[in-house]
Design a protein that fits this description.
With 921 residues, the chain is α+β, with helices and mostly antiparallel strands. It is 44% helix and 17% strand.
């Protein structure tokens, strides 16, 4: 069917829908409410969840269809995921969804999993945006093109995504383990599908799949963030409610899935042999569904096994040096599921010994069951993560979708309650029931007259579990706060501590009394940092691995007790990012002071850090994106090896890590760390500013570094154009990174024009010059981007482009990339592109400020660069005032396709070109 016929049919369908809607008297019917989240039901069967959050100036619309890879038939593997891509290709009424999202300054995505497919978009909280999002989602529910020409182009994009997954030994092994553990159930099938199905599926089968599952009686819409409840319900009724429920006859029925795995009658083994630089072990066990009363204990058991550093596997394998890192997780699914454990180890490690210790540790839970401390630690960490999710109205929709796919969204809350009620005996019982030899997928088949069988019970009905369930009190919603520069500057408080550190505080009421913060310590001078190698980065990474008064485990436990998120890292600039609540903020500050001021740098932790860093280098040396990026940096960087900003090769980096000592780290910390003049901190959220000032002064007011910070200039240096190619065997996907520099800071008169040009060229939501040509039209890349950057002080600007691609498409990708860059230089952008880009890009900047974590980072950076939000407002005004001639002139002046350094990494062995090629143009 061509698109003209599709438009006519769609228009007729909309007319019928409108008539049906007019005949309906009943609006959304209230069903239930749990902790501030209300459920409604439309007459056509569609579920509606509303979660208002007045404190967030954005609205997220999330539509979930209860269809995933589990529902695919023979020859249809990957269809649910492929359809997820095609639904972005438009409808007769919304022909360019990606561009329209970009124009509104929003960001969006779609995800497919075993049980569900969901689409979400976050837009500035405006009534017009809410109406557009709901109207568009209702439209594409039943009117998407799902056209043959779109399938032809998007199939290659999805195939590239498939190939990217094939590059990861971990993902490949995970899929093989699941396929071996499940003989019959569709959970054993990869969501992305088989390559042959992706390449050969008829468009008619995809259209039938779409018509069957993309219907209101198989969908749920979640609206979260800032909106008016009555208005949202009105819009949902007008647009989704106008779609009639389909006739579910024999051919169109939504059958309950009934395939179940028989008990596993012996341990299974699967071996994958592929090119790679690290080894991985996995062990999987069949466990009950997420609905079953045992599942909370199973999830806690996974934590007891896989946590670092408290976990059993960490202590048995990582601490003795047998492995680099370990983990464990249980899949939250409505039907009997899997608990998976994994072990990563270097290529030269003893795999047999690691397997022996892994299986003995798992089997040893009977003799040494999990203790009360281990289980309480697991409960604290798991529930803290859930609470942080519930406090984030932007991301909670994904969590609700996941749980809704198990049978009912309220299972999220019941599962939290179940976690809090489990005891050590429950976890021990789960271990003895499910972690038995013959229920394991890892090892070998062994005939046995007395097999150990795990009988996994059928999942109970959610309705019975949740009868009368109301949850807890609704959490605080926060205040209405528009993240405009004027509003921010009217409330932000800036001051300088006695140590010289600068602080910005923005107190406001938030959902769940959430607080986000960031602390950045800039350290050293060029002279004092020479020849320090990997010491600065290792020092920052080791801060949370033990202090004078707390072990690494005690630090981890304390973070969980405080229900906080705490990330510490860096090198010659050390960053501490904080996510906590008003109640716990002061204790979090005390914990930060403890680990930042009094690190102990234990020898055993340094040895573990060294192993993990070396394993990470091994992975990076086998990853196309990492190899291409390092190629480009090695070629472009002109610093000597002693310089702190020197980029080492993989071999040099390995030698630097191996040479680390605790004495170096202690000396570096003592000399360079402190809350000095180059330290900036910012906090945004629900806190008492005076109390926070006093706490910061109490904990850091007497801490200054021995060496004062001095900024290292890094101006532009010319680099000859080049084409750098690195051969990596057995990689189904390759990566291209290209760029060139030029002398410009972001205060240059031309930079605002380049900033917007970069958005038009390679930014936005899959809608840009490069995105439209390389991904949407040619189908050459799953991920493509490009743009311009410039430093706030140094005359150091750059253009960059990035793409993932199949190695056989390398020549075409380079050709198309060059064509588009030459075209934009010679012909420029159009007025329509400029108008659309201004709207979308400026809205994106608003969205960035609406995220409290990002705003804290912006305020902290502004302290260092002496920029307030009025400076940003002036920059945005300059963007609004840009003319087409100004933008095109700036691009002609500063973008030079002939000056590119192009770095590529992948398996190009099938081509006539040598495996390794470094050729200057």
């Amino acid at each position: 069917m061509n698109r003209i016929h599709v438009r006519f049919a769609a228009a007729f369908a909309l007319l019928l829908a409108a008539v049906a809607a007019f005949a309906q008297d009943e609006g959304p019917v209230f069903v239930t409410e749990v902790e501030g989240i209300a459920e409604y039901r439309l007459e056509n069967g569609m579920k509606v969840l509303l979660m208002p959050d007045a404190s967030r100036p954005t609205t997220t619309v999330n539509v979930t269809y209860f269809v995933g890879s589990k529902h695919e038939s023979y020859g249809e593997s990957g269809m649910a995921h492929l359809l997820e891509h095609l639904v972005f290709m438009g409808t007769p009424e919304h022909e360019n969804i990606k561009q329209q999202i970009t124009e509104r300054g929003g960001f969006a995505n779609g995800t497919t999993w075993l049980e569900r497919t969901n689409y979400f978009q976050t837009l500035p909280a405006e009534d017009e945006n809410l109406e557009w999002a709901i109207r568009m989602e209702a439209d594409r529910m039943v009117n998407s093109f799902i056209a043959a020409d779109d399938l032809a182009s998007e199939m290659t994009v999805v195939r590239n995504e498939f190939e990217i997954g094939e590059n990861s030994p971990f993902r490949v092994l995970l899929q093989r383990v699941m396929a071996t553990a499940y003989e019959w159930h569709a959970y054993g099938r990869s969501t992305i599908g088989a390559r042959a199905d992706l390449e050969n599926v008829p468009i008619e089968r995809l259209q039938r799949f779409y018509r069957q599952y993309y219907q209101p009686d198989n969908a749920m819409v979640i609206v979260s963030g800032k909106f008016e409840t009555e208005r949202a319900l009105e819009l949902i009724q007008n647009h989704f409610g106008a779609i009639p429920a389909p006739a579910r006859d024999l051919d169109n029925a939504l059958w309950d899935t009934y395939t179940r795995e028989p008990y596993q009658d012996g341990p299974r083994e699967v071996t994958v042999r592929r090119s790679g630089s690290t080894q991985t072990l996995m062990a999987a066990y069949h466990v009950p569904s997420a609905l079953h009363e045992d599942f909370a204990a199973v999830e806690a058991l996974a934590f007891v096994l896989g946590d670092a550093p408290s976990g059993r596997l960490h202590k048995a394998l990582v601490e003795p040096g047998l492995a680099s890192d370990v983990g464990a997780f249980a899949l939250r699914l409505p039907e009997p599921s899997l608990l998976l454990t994994y072990v990563n180890l270097p290529a030269d490690a003893d795999l047999d010994e690691a397997e022996r210790v892994l299986t003995e540790t798992l089997a040893g839970l009977d003799a040494s069951p999990p203790g009360t401390d281990e289980v309480q630690r697991a409960v604290s960490s798991l529930t803290a993560n859930m609470e942080r999710t519930l406090n984030d109205s932007q991301s909670v929709g994904i969590g609700l979708s996941e749980w809704a796919a198990t049978g009912d969204w309220r299972m999220l809350f019941l599962h939290r309650d179940r976690l809090e009620q489990i005891e050590a005996a429950d976890v021990a019982e789960a271990a003895s029931t499910y972690l038995v030899r013959d229920n394991r997928t890892l090892g070998r088949f062994i005939p046995d007259s007395e097999p150990q069988r795990a009988i996994v019970e059928e999942a109970p009905e959610p309705e019975a579990l949740l009868a009368g369930y109301t949850g807890r009190e609704s959490r605080s919603e926060g205040e209405v706060f528009e993240a405009t520069p004027d509003n921010i500057e009217a409330r932000v408080q800036r001051y300088t501590m006695d140590t010289g550190a600068e602080v910005a505080l923005l107190p406001k009421s938030t959902r769940g009394e959430r607080v986000r913060g960031t602390i950045t310590m800039r350290i050293g001078t060029l002279e004092t940092l020479m020849d320090t190698g990997s010491v600065p980065a290792a020092t920052a990474s080791m801060l949370s691995r033990g202090s004078e008064n707390l072990t690494r485990q005690e630090i981890s436990d304390r973070i969980d007790e405080l229900q906080a998120g705490l990330n510490v890292g860096g090198s010659t600039s050390v960053s501490i990012n904080i996510d906590t609540t008003r109640e716990n903020l002061m204790e979090v500050i005390e914990l930060i002071a403890e680990i930042a001021r009094n690190p102990s740098f234990p020898e055993s932790e340094l040895e573990e850090y060294r192993r993990q860093a070396l394993t990470g280098l091994d992975r990076a040396s086998d990853d196309p994106a990492s190899v291409a990026s390092r190629q480009l940096s090695l070629y472009s960087n002109d610093k000597p090896a002693s310089h702190p900003d020197y980029v080492p090769s993989f071999e040099e980096a390995r030698a630097r890590i191996e040479a680390l000592s605790t004495e170096q780290l202690r000396a570096f910390h003592e000399r360079f760390y402190g809350f000095g003049e180059a330290t900036t901190a910012a906090f945004v959220g629900d806190f008492d500013p005076e109390a926070l000032k006093a706490k910061l002064d109490e904990q850091f007011g007497d801490w200054t570094p021995q060496v004062r910070f001095e900024r290292r200039p890094d101006p532009y240096t010319p680099v000859e154009p080049a084409r750098l190619v690195e051969q990596l065997d057995d990689k189904a996907s390759a990566v291209l990174i290209a760029g060139h520099g030029f002398p410009m800071s972001d205060t240059h008169p031309d930079y605002v024009a380049l900033e917007l040009a970069g958005h038009m060229l390679g930014g936005g939501f899959l809608s840009s010059r490069l995105g439209d040509r390389i991904r949407n039209q040619e189908g050459l890349s799953y991920a493509v981007a490009g743009g311009f950057n410039a430093h706030p002080i140094d005359e150091s600007g750059s253009f960059f482009a990035f793409a993932m691609f199949a190695p056989e498409n390398r020549d075409r990708l380079e050709e198309v990339l060059n064509e588009e860059l030459v075209k934009v230089v010679e012909d420029g952008f159009t007025q329509d592109e400029l108008d659309s880009a201004k709207t979308g890009y400026l809205q994106q900047l608003v969205l960035q400020r609406s995220d409290d974590g990002a705003l804290a980072g912006q305020l902290s950076g502004g302290l260092y660069f002496d920029r307030d939000l009025f400076w940003q407002a002036e920059r945005e005004a300059a963007i609004r005032a840009l003319t087409l001639d100004e933008v095109n002139a700036a691009v002609r002046e500063w973008l030079d396709p002939d000056a590119l350094v192009v770095a590529m990494a992948g398996d190009f062995s099938g081509e006539s070109e040598p495996a390794s090629d470094v050729a200057e143009d």
